[in-house]
Specification:
- By secondary structure, the chain is of the alpha+beta class.
- The chain folds into 2 domains: 183 residues, Jelly Rolls (Sandwich), CATH 2.60.120.10; 108 residues, Homeodomain-like (Arc Repressor Mutant, subunit A).
- Helices cover 40% and strands 22% of the residues.
- Strands 1, 2, 3, 4, 5, 6, 7, 8, 9 and 10 form a 10-stranded antiparallel sheet that branches.
- A hairpin with a 2-residue loop joins strand 3 and strand 4.
- It is globular.
- The N terminus and C terminus are likely disordered.
Length: 318
């Protein structure tokens, strides 16, 4: 890719590249994996400093230092593309799933804890310009509200930037930066608030709707579980279970049915014969092909391959 530098896969190469791109971070290797994964691709996107990071480290940590030693003129826009991660920054904890976007200050202590293999894109933004687009008194950090139109547009813009490999004109670069800042200012409005220790009061119906939205946004992750959902929504497991039971059903069955529905849809897409049943199962969060096949047959009355033969739009040869 034009204008980009790649570095990985040894720990020393990873540490050198991360410090050059992101600052004084230290990496703790996850010993449960036989091989360390650490890849950094850096350069510019739309005229902005850019990095794509991929790792299975246990955690990547930056200690707090004096403001005079930190680069306090930048903010980092982090877009999660693969896997899950917990980010703790300045007293706030963010649970990132694929597609999530969070704004972070470039100063202060920060810890990123991957849940397995993760990949995310980081774009550096001028802090004074970010501050001008955020409401007075708001912190320059927080999750982007992907349920808002601005948040969804910002995610599309970042996805487009990640694929760009040519240099933009100065006018285009200005337009990209202006668009990011305007969308970011709007998308952070409802998310960027001080954390509270009190549980948010919701009706069971409201909680179930929020849980279903989170499940659908995270359905491909094998780490999706009631415990994770309850943690992200800041409720107890008992409250979460009750919200589904009162409507008839359970959170486990909802997750399973949603995954099976996606798998069934993909099995019948024209051209899907090139993709194995096992790969489709893994894509939608299943971790075992045998248990997937049993669950699929119980739900649809046919094994996955039989379902594909009956409903696929093209002639299938198994």
């Amino acid at each position: 890719m034009a204008g980009l530098q790649e570095c990985g896969n040894s720990v020393s190469q990873w540490n050198f590249a991360v410090r050059a791109v992101c600052g004084p971070y230290e990496t703790e290797v996850n010993r449960k994996y036989a091989k360390f994964v650490g890849d950094v691709v850096s350069g510019t996107r739309g005229g902005l400093p850019f990095a794509r990071l991929r790792t299975n480290a246990a955690r990547v940590r930056r200690c707090a230092r004096g403001a005079d030693r930190d680069n306090d003129q930048r903010c980092i826009l982090l877009s999660q593309s693969i896997g899950q991660a917990r980010v703790v920054h300045d007293g706030f904890t963010y649970h990132l799933m694929p597609g999530d976007i969070v704004l972070l200050d470039s100063t202060g202590a920060c810890e990123i804890e991957p849940k397995g293999l993760i990949e995310h894109m980081a774009i550096s933004l001028p802090k004074p310009m970010v501050a001008r687009h955020i409401s007075p008194g708001r912190r320059l950090q927080g999750m982007v509200d992907l349920n808002s139109t601005s948040g969804r547009l910002l995610r599309l813009l970042l996805a487009q930037l990640s694929e760009e490999d040519h240099k933009l004109s100065e006018l285009e670069q200005h337009g990209v930066l202006s668009a990011i800042l305007c969308l970011l200012g709007s998308a952070l409005q409802k998310q960027n608030v001080q954390p509270s220790k009190k549980l948010t009061r919701r009706t069971s119906a409201e909680l179930r709707v929020e849980a279903e939205i989170f499940i659908q946004n995270s359905i491909a992750s094998p780490e999706l579980s009631p415990a994770l959902i309850a943690s992200v929504l800041n409720v107890s497991l008992r409250q979460l279970y009750r919200s589904f039971e009162e409507g008839g059903g359970s959170v486990y069955r909802y997750i399973l049915a949603s995954r099976l529905k996606h798998c069934a849809s993909e099995l019948t897409v024209a051209g899907s014969i090139r993709v194995s049943v096992t790969d489709i199962a893994y894509k939608w969060g299943f971790s075992d092909s045998a248990s997937f096949s049993r669950a699929f047959k119980r739900h649809f009355g046919l094994a996955p391959r039989e379902y594909r033969m009956v409903f696929c739009d093209q002639k299938i040869i198994i």
